[in-house]
Structure formats: C-alpha cells, structure tokens
Amino acid sequence: KLKMIFIFNYKENNPSSSPFLTLHAVRQWSNVPFFTVPLARAHGKSFAHRSELRQAKRIVVKLGSAVVTRGDECGLALGRLASIVEQVVLINRNGREMMIVTSGAVAFGKQRLRHEILLSQSVRQALHSGQNQLKDMSLPVLEARACAAAGQSGLMALYEAMFTQYSTCTAQILVTNLDFHDDQKRRNLNSTLHELLRMNIVPIINTNDAVVPPPEPNSDLQGVNVISIKDNDSLAARLAVEMRADLLIALSDVEGLYDSPPGSDDAKLLDTFYPGDQHSITYGTKSRVGIGGMEAKVKAALWALQGGTSVVIANGTHPKVTGHVITDIVEGKKVGTFFSEVKPAGPTVEQQTEMARSAGRTLASLEPEQRSDIICILADLLTERKDEILSANKNDMEHAVSRLSPAMLKRLSLSSSKLNSLSIGLRQIAVSSQDSVGRVLRRTRVANKLELEQITVPIGVLLVIFESRPDCLPQVSALAIASGNALLLKGGKEAANTNRILHELAQEALSIHGVKDAIQLVSTREEVEDLCRLEKMIDLIIPRGSSQLVRDIQRAAKSIPVLGHSEGICHVYVDHEASVDKAIKIIRDSKCDYPAACNAMETLLVHRDLLRTPLFDQIIDMLRTEHVKVHAGPKFASYLTFSPSEVKSLRTEYGDLECCIEVVDSMQEAVDHIHKYGSSHTDVIVTENEDTAEQFLQQLDSACVFWNASSRFADGYRFGLGAEVGISTARIHARGPVGLEGLLTTKWVLRGEGQTAADFSEQGSMTYLHENLPVAQVLPGHRTTS
C-alpha cells in the first residue's frame, strides 16, 4: 500500500496527547437520494483542462479565513456563507459528493467571548460606580484556543441551520495533525468520510484549534491587536488526496494567483498555473487573517495536484461573484486560477491577444499601400490555393453531415465560385483601404497657431466569433487589415480544418510586412463566455452566427461592446398598388435565394385588398412551387376556412423554407406591425405609389429599408463595401452592413505652440476663433498613426 507523507506546519504542545476526533451528524428525513455510483474516472491523474471540471464527482471546498469571517474579524460573514451553502447544496443535488474544509471557529468564538467580557465588565462597573455611565473599557488579548473552543459549536450550529433549510444533512469532523500520522486513525477518518458521503451527508471539517498551539504572530499585522486564524490549506489538500477527490476549490480574498503581488501595477491574474512556473511568481503579503498566505496555498495546491486532484484558487469574498463562484468553477468557466499539469503547446488566449495587439499597432502604422498589398496577396492565395482549401472543407463537411441541419451545412460549404467571389470582394476592400486609417474628417482653427484635427484610427483588438461560416474568416481578416485592427478569431469546431488553412493564408499574407501575429485564431478549448470576460484586452466583439449565439454573447459581454443583431426578422410588405411581376420576383428572391441568411424574408405582409386576387393566388402558387411552408398570422387565418398552421409567434426567424403570412389594412399598419414584431434589420415595400413608398422609407426605423428590391441586397458586398463583418441593428456607431468604416473610430489631434487654457480666460490675452478649415489641407509631411 502506497503511503503518502505530508508535513504539516503544526507544532503540538504535547505530542503524546491523543488526537481529538469528533463526529456530529443529525440525519434530516428527506427525499434526497443516496448516491452510491462509482466515480466517473479512475483517480490518479488530474484534469488537464478547465472544461473537464464538469466531470468532477467528488469535490472539496476550502473556505479560507477571509471568506468565512467579517471584515472586522469579529464574527462570521453570514450572507456570504448562505450563498456558499446554497451552491454546495445545488451541486450536491446534481449527483456530486461535497466536502467542506472551513475556518471561522476562532472568529466566531472571539465575537462571543468579547460580548461576554463586555457584559461582565459593564455589570461590575455599574455595581461599583452605582450608575449606568460606563468608563472606557479595554479588552484583554483573547487566546486563540479559547476562542476556538467557544466558537466551534456555534459555527457548526450555523452550518447545520443553513443546510437544514435545504433538507441537507451535515456532519462535523475535527482533526489535528496527529490524526494523519497514525495509520489506524487515518483509516478511521477515511472510513468515516466515505460512509458520510455514501449517505449523501456533507462533511464539514476543521482543525481542532482548541487543542493546537496558537499560530506564530504575523509580521504583517504591525502590532494591531487581532488574532490570526489557523490556515487550512494544507488540511484541505491532504483530505482531497486522501479521499481521492477530483477537485479542490480553495476560496480566498483574492481573484486567484498573480504573477506578482496583486496590488502592483503590472500584476496579471494567471488563468492557469503549471508546476514548473513557480520561479516566475513573486508573492506578496498575507491576507488580513490566516497565517498561510498565497505561497502556502500554492504549495498545498501543487501537492494536491501531484496527488491527482485538480485545484482552483478563486475569490470567495467579492459580492458580485460569491453567489455563483463555486458553480461557475464546476461548470468549467474561467474563474480564478486553475492548476494543471498539462501545459499547452501553443500560447494562451491572453498571450495571443497581446501578440495581436502588439502586431496590430505595427499594422496600423503601415502605409495604406502596404495594407492594400497584404489584402491583394490574400485574395490571390484564395484562388491559388483553392485545392487545399476545398480539401479541408470537404473533410469538415464529411464530419458535419450527420450533425448539422441542411441550412448550416450550406453555410459551412465552400466552392470554387465562392472562393472567386471572396477574392473579388477582398480586392474591393484593398482599394477602399487606401483612404481609411489616418483620414482627416474635420479641421478647425481653434485659435491663432492652434489647430485641431479629427482623424480616423483603428478600434484596437477585435474579437469575431462565428459559426459554420469559414468564408467569414478571409472577409473579416481583410477588413481588419484595411482598418489597421488586430483580430482575434474564434470559429466553430465544425469548420476547424477550413478555418486553419484560411488562417494560415492570412498570416502568410501578413508576413510580407512583418505583421503575421496581427490576426490570431483561437484553437484552445476556450469557452465563448470566457472570451467575453477579457475586457482589458478586447475592444469590440462581433458575433457571426445564430440569434442564440448573439444573445449569449450580448449577455456574457458585460464590459465589452458587441456589434451585431440578435435576429433577422425581415418583412416584405406588398401594397395594394404593387406590380405583379415585381412582387413575385422580390418575394421569391427574398425567401428562397438563401433561406438561412439573416437578410431572408421571414414575414410576408399583404394588403387586405389583395386577398382573393390573381396576384395573391400567384404568390401562394409560387411559394408552394418553391416548397415554402406557410404559417398563417392571426388576421390571415380569420379569412380562411381551411388555413395553414397558425403561427406560434409573429416574432420568429425561421432560417429555412418557411415564412409567416399576415394581412394588414394599410401601409401604416404594416409599419406598426414591423415596429412591434421586427428586429430592425431589413424591411421591404413593394408598391408603384411613390408617395406610399417614401412614407414607408421615412417612418420605418430599421437598419435597411428598401423599395421594390429584394431584402437580400442587405449585404456589404452588394452595397459595394467589399465585405462586411456583420449587420448591426444598434442605434449608435455603425448600423446596417458594417464594412471598413464601421471598424474605425476617431481621435483628436491638437497642434499648438505653447498655449494654455489660462491664456483664454477673462484675464488672458488670447481669444477663440473656432474656424472650420478644408479637410483637404493636410500639413506638409504630416503622418497620422493610431
């Protein structure tokens, strides 16, 4: 039998005394089942990636002193503990075995003893003085073991009360260092814990601080009269390995492990820590309570990792994350620092972002002709290397045919004609890039010899997330190059092979001017939600995919702007003065040309006077011929004896050969319907009445509004933008098809000769002119960069 020896930093006053072990369990009758299912994996090897944490079946949660106690160290953080208990119960009910290693007995006892001392002193003083007015009372220094003895029962009673609210049973186990040095007691402890877990009881484990010696004073306390609470990191690590736990979650008062003390300017939170990285870490001071500090946590975490238990160190005190920090970690989200023995071969996504930003600044400083050259070379490579591209795409198609819908497969598929069209579009972008970065939009003479310019500059680092659309990669890459932006790409796994070859071609083109790293393809197991949290690295997110993807990104990216639209519910309104031929052509093209596109028609609005006319009959016949499934709107259904299936919602994006038909009484009712049920994407009117058309175009608040033209024209390429990164329905910045212009922002450049704001005050000698100057007047030799 393999014996694991772990050296604890405990100093027993009387090593010969018998260790103290107590078990306290009150079974609550409930319908919670016992989980006796064996672990999902053989223990002995920790998880290599965060995403694998979802497989963890046995979890130890270590609550540090700073998590359990209040800021004044006198009492417990009840609200924080309640949210932690709720998460533990939730995870436990999902079939996982949970154990808690907790601090807090000393702090709780300290609160109780202080209260008793104050009460005792006040009574004695009142009797002595004969009056209620009390003099200043000083509190004695409280001994840690006495505090632990006074607080342990109350701490456990509090846990028991909280867990009882969820009909979950708990058990208390107090241990000392000697319990791990005696083989028989180790086996007893192990057996007890296994039996508790078998009965679905949550063990709550703590060191028996009533019999251990007090901790050595912390150097960082600087004379403040507080009692440090014994650190439980080593205990949690030892128990996790002894019990073959899959995951140890160590909650503290810091976000995780930083490469330098968290308070320093250049400190960076490490998403993942590898055993060989200790030399790159500089440790800071310890927390306000506890004696271990981050260095002790790291040592304990590495020991547990070596023993086969994965570890995450995270913040359990932040009010914005405490309520879901444990569940987020178990779900594999990027929270805190994850300890892994498997170091990826390539750079992390954070490193990729930094590489892209650095190269992006160089890209923005290139001459317009140089950026144009890069795009033209990429356009050439798309046709010259089409055999490689199509071969990779065929591989993706073969793997996806059984998993994707026909509409998604069509988006995934590439062909020679598609590559030729892409190449033509890229050359249009190359031409437009000649007048993009550094273009002067406005010039103003603020005062004599004080001139102001507003110029275009790149946004910074773009993150584009796209599904099943490999043709998106060269389009977006060309637009990023033309606008001088760094680019981070996250494609769907269904197009992994195609995306890889297209990204290689983009970097090959970029390398001619030494900016290969400006475009990065994220190939790690990075969750989209985790990418949306890189607010310090990414300046704009552009989702390209399903409405659900866009909504998820908009919800997750709380601190990063998102450009795009969540739905493409496009309408075609056929007025009673519409041309028959135009109506049929426009409806067919809008719905049937590419049903999966976001600019395809989803709802057909028909003027009431057209019902039971040849025009309406031809529309229905055409849709039937094109195999379009029709859903009847409420008003349309009321006109029919036998109607098609009634629509479930008038706000539906079908993305297939399906559409809704609804009847309206007027153009104004059509506008009102679109405002209520549309998505502000693209809407069309078919009519021969110019006044009616102009009213429709003026009143409708959509990104694109068309008269007698298919909704499929809502596209950057068809608008002459060369390509687009997406269609935006937002009210600010870019709207509609977003091409090169939408990827630029501005900055103000002021050139003076020593002027100050005081010069223009009432006592100053200068006055403002604010004269607009022709933007064509550029200073000789002027060169603008971001």
Structural overview:
The protein is of the alpha/beta class. It has a nine-stranded mixed beta sheet with strand order 1-4-5-3-2-6-8-9-7, with helices on both faces. A six-stranded parallel beta sheet has the order 18-19-17-16-20-21, with helices on both faces. The chain has a four-stranded antiparallel beta sheet with strand order 24-11-10-25, with no helix packed on it. Helix 6 packs parallel to helix 7 (293-306), helix 13 packs parallel to helix 14 (472-483) and helix 14 runs parallel beside helix 15 (496-510). The two termini are 65 Å apart. Bifunctional enzyme that converts glutamate to glutamate 5-semialdehyde, an intermediate in the biosynthesis of proline, ornithine and arginine. One of its GO terms (molecular function) is ATP binding. It is found in: Mitochondrion matrix.
Fold topology:
Elements lengths: L21 E4 L32 E6 L1 H4 L9 H16 L3 E6 L2 H25 L14 H21 L5 E6 L7 H16 L3 E6 L25 H10 L4 E6 L19 E2 L19 H14 L3 E6 L9 H6 L6 E3 L9 H17 L2 H17 L1 H15 L5 H7 L3 H17 L7 E8 L2 E9 L2 E6 L5 H12 L2 E6 L4 H15 L8 E3 L6 H4 L8 E5 L2 H10 L13 E5 L5 H13 L8 E7 L6 H12 L3 E4 L1 H5 L19 E7 L2 H11 L4 E5 L3 H10 L4 E4 L18 E3 L7 E3 L5 E8 L19 E3 L13
Parallel strand pairs: 2-3, 2-6, 3-5, 4-5, 6-8, 7-9, 12-13, 12-15, 13-14, 16-17, 16-20, 17-19, 18-19, 20-21
Antiparallel strand pairs: 1-4, 8-9, 10-11, 10-25, 11-24, 22-23
Notable traits:
alpha/beta; 786 residues; disordered C terminus; multifunctional enzyme; mitochondrion; 6-stranded parallel sheet; kinase; 9-stranded mixed sheet; Glu/AcGlu_kinase
